[in-house]
Every structure is written in C-alpha cells, then in structure tokens.
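Researcher: I'd like a candidate sequence for this fold, 209 residues long. If you have to choose between options at a position, lean toward the conservative one.
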C-alpha cells in the first residue's frame, strides 16, 4: 500500500481527496509536516480558490521547498486544480499577478468563454503514451470547476530532455488539462470528484510510486 501525504496548506478539498485516494488503495495522511511530506512515497498538492491565496498558503508551510526537495530526489508529486496552476510561473486573476512555483513556464489566465466558471463534466485529449490516462476511453469525462487555466504551453522542446506529456481540454478555447513531467504530474480537473474515471486515474498514479 503506497504511503501518500496530502499537503494541508489551508486550501483544497482535503477530505474528498483523502477518501478518493484511500478507495484507490493508498495509505493517506493529511498534514503540513515538512518531513512527512518530503519522505512520503507520493505527495498530493490540492487547491481550491484564488491563485494568489493558494500561493500564500503554500509558501506559509514551505510547500514550494517541499516540492523542490521531492523533485530533486525524483519523488512523485501530483497537483490538482489550483494545485496544478501554482506549479506554473505565475497567475493573473482579477488584475492581481502572483508568482507561482515556477516548475513550468506559463501563465494562468481567465478563459475566453461565454460561460464561466467552467463547471461540470468534460472530455480531454490525452497523449497516447499517457500514464495517468492509461486504460481510459478517449470519451471519458472528468469533473472541472474553474474559470482560469493555462491557455498556452510554453516549455520549449529539447533534444536532451524528454518532453512532458500534455493533456488538453476545451471550454471556449483549448487549455491545459493535465501534465505528466517525470515525477511531477498534475490535472486541472478534480479526479476525486470524477467517479470511476477519477478513481482509475488515481490508481494509475499510485502504480508509479
């Protein structure tokens, strides 16, 4: 049974994520303890609300340093919703620009869509070699709740580095719905609220721990 820490930094649907991961077969602890978060087999970074507020909470518990330490040791991290967004360089919401963790270049911005928030079930376009979406039908739907997203993937390709697998979805325009970048993975949607599809995705993640 994989040992997973859900990082408690004052943001996120912690109990739903905890229950979903337990059902998927993980031994789960919800904590802000630095040592536990660094040493667990897997770390989940949730997030609900405004980008800047989530970053303030994350910095308050040293979450950026925890993520850096884990990735330096090739230890898996999974970001969910705003927990994915804060992995990028910056977010711009309601005129407020805030720095993110900078694991990936890119800016979280308001979606160009007639109806916001983007709330409900939507399909995604995952790469054929995806780990997270392995075994899932291309028409599978996942549950989204957000008005802001990364609208452009800015990490340039390199012959010396394996490019990340990027999953896309569309609501008014295309946006990044998931990223798989070695030990660092993330989804814009909520797998813990996505029923059987989300449970399969979480099991796929647990299988790499």
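Model: Candidate sequence:
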């Amino acid at each position: 049974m994989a040992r997973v820490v859900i990082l408690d930094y004052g943001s996120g649907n912690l109990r739903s994520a905890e229950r979903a991961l337990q059902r998927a077969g993980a031994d789960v602890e919800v904590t802000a303890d630095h040592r536990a978060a660094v040493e667990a087999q897997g770390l989940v970074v949730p997030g609900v609300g405004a980008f800047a507020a989530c970053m303030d909470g994350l910095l308050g518990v040293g979450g950026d340093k925890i993520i850096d330490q884990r990735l330096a040791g090739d230890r898996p991290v999974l970001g969910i919703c705003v927990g994915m967004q804060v992995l990028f360089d910056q977010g711009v919401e309601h005129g407020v620009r805030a720095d993110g963790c900078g694991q990936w270049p890119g800016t979280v911005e308001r979606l160009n869509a007639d109806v916001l928030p983007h709330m409900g079930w939507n399909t995604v376009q995952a790469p054929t070699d995806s780990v997270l979406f392995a075994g899932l039908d291309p028409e599978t739907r996942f549950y989204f709740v957000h008005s802001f997203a990364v609208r452009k993937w800015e990490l340039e390709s390199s012959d010396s580095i394996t490019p990340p697998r990027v999953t896309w979805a569309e609501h008014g325009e295309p946006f990044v719905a998931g990223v798989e970048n070695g030990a660092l993975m993330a989804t814009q949607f909520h797998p813990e609220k996505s029923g059987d599809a989300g449970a399969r995705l979480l099991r796929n993640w647990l299988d790499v721990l």
